[in-house]
Amino acid sequence: MADVEEQARKQSEEFTDESEEEDSEEEPKLKYERLSNGVTEILQKDAASCMTVHDKFLALGTHFGKVYLLDIQGNVTQKFEISSVKINQISLDESGEHVGICSEDGKVQVFGLYTREGFHENFDHTIKVVALHPQFSRSNYKQFVTGGNKLLLYEKNWLNRWKMSVLHEGEGSITNVQWRANLIAWANNVGVKIYDIGTKQRITNVLRDNISLRPDMYPCSLCWKDNSTLIVGWGTSIKICVAKERNPTEMRDLPSRYVEIVSAFETEFFISGLAPLADQLVTLYFVKENSDHMDEEFRARPRLDIIQPLPESCEEISSDALTVRNFQDNECRDYRLEHSEGESLFYIISPKDIVVAKERDQDDHIDWLLEKKKYEEALMAAEISFKNIKRHDVQKIGMAYINHLVEKGDYDSAARKCQKVLGKNMELWENEVYRFKTIGQLKAISQYLPRGDLRLRPAIYEMILHEFLKTDYEGFATLIREWPGELYNNMAIVQAVNDHLKRDPTNRTLLTTLAELYTYDQRYDRALEIYLRLRHKDVYQLIHKHNLFSSIEDKIVLLMDFDKEKAVDMLLDNEDKLSTDRVVEELADRPELLHVYLHKLFKRDHHKGQKYHERQIVLYAEYDRPNLLPFLRDSTHCPLEKALEVCQQRNFVEETVFLLSRMGNCRRALQMIMEELEDVDKAIEFAKEQDDAELWEDLISYSIDKPPFITGLLNNIGTHVDPILLIHRIKEGMEIPNLRDSLVKILQDYNLQILLREGCKKILVADSLSLLQKMHRTQMRGVRVDEENICESCHAAILPSDMAKAFSVVVFHCRHMFHKECLPSSGTIPGVQFCNICSAKKRRPGSGILEMKK
């Protein structure tokens, strides 16, 4: 690290009086390599349409509407699905925290890379360009421009809403736009304009030289060299324009600034891109197909030249022909040149290839970055190419970066970098911890300390915990939760926390942390006491995880007071560890909690807590009447007399009615419904359930002088009682509501009954006839009789051995067979014989179906 610092110091002294541009002159010349890794896979399936370069990353847009964020080596870090068509342009602010994107289908999105909040709009025409204010991340510079057939400026006003204004229109499509400081430069079909956003004035119009070239095939290239110098390349023409302040005496109605073209010259080839390199230019050329002086094999290969511009011409410094993939298929508009000012990297973008041009080797590049104090970029470059660098060491560069951040006072960034830079070097880690302690910034490094397999000495962690305990209880609690207990001496920290609790005994943060420490130390009883005292949500998890049910036998009321539902579920799920009798005993003095427990127990199993059903009657009546009636219905162990007594004392009519009916006193139950509830529908429903003629008679007698009740009976009685009985008992002249409708309903019900009876009768007759025919067919069938059959009376073979002799056999429909002489005489019905066996078994005897004689 000392060598790196000494080298950086010498270089700094050597160029102390030179400008940043002069420093850039010392940057090595270009060399090339293809951007690969994730880019290769992207371009195999897609094609690059645009790319924007930031010092820290790249943003690549494709023809399929995707935007990829890449690191310098081409690895994909983020991917955005913006559209399904070509991405036309991507713009980043200087901080690299916000991005603007436009696509061929008119979509424009401006958002933060870490928040995705911002501007999202769909236009009804193609948007070719978008550019963010370089300081877009600052709240007072929320501005960006978009271009299609108009150049539109969007600004966020004090109401946090986007305001749109037209900067220019009427000269065809906007094909390019670049924003630097307060100046916006854009190109359309006519030429290039520059607008001063500070004075809100357009300050120049640089006309296009060769109007015969199609702007869409040979687009304009714009590049800002600095805050006032714009480089314009169009076709084969290059112009360097400088914005200057106008003399106040010459202003009159003119803009405060004007543009002077300090250099204008023609080139041999078509320009596809421009980039500054100190006072020189890097130019990307599209080589004309008809260049006769070039060999055939080199035609159409793009060229990357470094030129020295002069007032009316240029001097070529270097020139390279690039063999990019599919260069034979590319047009001038297919190439783009993007550059990274911080690292002097130049990116040649074509649809199927991206080539990086950089200066000399990586060691020299890192030297230049260290001179510029761009430690983060130097560290990133060293990490990316650590196998190729020879004079530098990643860890030494990282230590230089950490020292720089500490000197700047950016302690959080310095601590964060320690994690990457120090790695597994425990000695360096301890040195850095003590340095942070010396400058009073232990908190900054605490969250990045090693805590896995590689660990520092316990004293280091304890020192940090004591520091937090003095000044930040919340931070201390966070570290206790995040750090494994093996990192430090648990007992020492417990003692320190107890000392602080003596001064602040009700501090919830300290108490919770102490409970966590006790848990890690397996002193669960103490942790449980604290959690219950704090009513902490983790108490149930602690009990389950460490099987602390024996410790909560006398704390059931506390658990129930904290969260009844969780407590009851836990108790019921672990009945083998905490018996129901024990829980009931603990809750005896808290009947409202006892009811919750017994209610859930009953819901789970109607029989498990049967011995407490009598007690539950009073609990339901006192705390949960809506569930009393369901309980009485479902319980088979509830003493009905006790339940009736409780319900009558509290005048619970519905429950009393149910109990009376269950005890067989249906008449009294019906009387209560009629007299106390005065609900004829419920009374009718009750009578239907009991299906007792005497109840119907009582119901009719009670209702006969109450017209509304008569209406209810007329509407519902027809299917259970003959409505004539009710109608005959209605007094003449009594006015009954809806009598006509009720009588019509009775007639309809009666008609329906008649129809149902007739239908049933038809079905019965049809079924009877069908079965009779089936029986007749069955009885008319022949019955097989052979030598294997025997007489059911004498048990001899039914057929004689000598078939020549005369014989007579009787076979009944029940398939029993007899010799005719073995059958007894006819019964009481003359001429009809019955099977003796079936008659003896008290079946209906079958009559003889067949008589065989010979």
Automatic annotation (TrEMBL):
One of its GO terms (biological process) is cellular response to starvation. It comes from the Eukaryota. Residues 791-839 form the RING-type domain. GO terms for molecular function: zinc ion binding. It is a peripheral membrane protein. Residues 1-13 have a biased composition (Basic and acidic residues). CHCR repeats lie at residues 568-712. SMART domains: CLH. The keyword Cytoplasm applies. It is found in: Cytoplasm, Cytosol; Early endosome membrane; Endosome membrane; Late endosome membrane. Residues 1-31 are annotated as: Disordered. Keywords: Autophagy, Cytoplasm, Cytoplasmic vesicle, Endosome, Golgi apparatus, Lysosome, Membrane, Metal-binding, Protein transport, Transport, Zinc, Zinc-finger. InterPro entries: Beta-prop_Vps41 (IPR057780), Clathrin_H-chain/VPS_repeat (IPR000547), TPR-like_helical_dom_sf (IPR011990), Vps41 (IPR016902), Vps41/Vps8 (IPR045111), WD40/YVTN_repeat-like_dom_sf (IPR015943), WD40_repeat_dom_sf (IPR036322), Znf_RING (IPR001841). The keyword Plastid does not apply. Residues 14-26 have a biased composition (Acidic residues). Belongs to the VPS41 family. Plays a role in vesicle-mediated protein trafficking to lysosomal compartments including the endocytic membrane transport pathways. This is Vacuolar protein sorting-associated protein 41 homolog.
